């Protein structure tokens, strides 16, 4: 079960990253709430896409080899910091509660899953 979830997370992260790299403008309009965060910047979307692609790769690696746990943990920390940035923007009044609610599946639940999956495993 844990391995299947690891593969699913890897697929979600990698697919998101690839879409951000290949089609940044459609991605910008496809993901709920993104277009309300500021004007479209293709370079910025692609930069973040690179991070998501690396995160996906680390979880694919973890699904195959427990020695990838440190790489997956670093990826999970990136996702957590990203989520904390969203929370901080909400606290500071830069994001609405409605926007934060839209963020629950992709911005808040994925890091929680990533942290759990990247926790120390037995060899």
Assign an overall shape: globular
Indicate the mean pLDDT: 94
In total, the number of domains comes to 1
Unreliable stretches, pLDDT < 50, 5 or more residues? none
Task: Provide the descriptors you would attach to this structure in a database record.
123 residues; globular; mainly alpha; transmembrane helix; single chain
Note down, in words, how this protein is organized.
- With 123 residues, the protein is mostly helical.
- The protein has six helices and no strands.
- The protein has one domain.
- 76% of the residues lie in helices and 0% in strands.
- Helix 1 packs across helix 2 and helix 4 packs antiparallel against helix 6.
Question: Briefly, what is this?
Answer:
This is DUF4345 domain-containing protein. With 123 residues, the protein is mainly α. It is built from 6 helices and no strands.
Strand and helix layout:
Elements: H1 2-22, H2 24-30, H3 42-64, H4 69-91, H5 97-102, H6 104-117
């Amino acid at each position: 079960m844990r391995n299947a979830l690891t593969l699913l997370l890897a697929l979600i992260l990698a697919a998101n990253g690839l879409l951000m790299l290949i089609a940044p403008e459609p991605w910008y309009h496809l993901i709920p709430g993104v277009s309300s965060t500021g004007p479209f910047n293709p370079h910025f979307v692609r930069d973040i896409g690179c991070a998501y692609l690396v995160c996906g790769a680390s979880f694919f690696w973890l699904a195959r080899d427990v020695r990838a746990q440190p790489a997956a943990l670093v990826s999970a920390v990136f996702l957590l910091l990203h989520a904390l940035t969203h929370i901080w923007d909400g606290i500071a009044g830069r994001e609405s509660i409605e926007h934060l609610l839209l963020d629950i599946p992709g911005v808040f639940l994925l890091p929680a899953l990533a942290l759990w999956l990247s926790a120390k495993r037995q060899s």
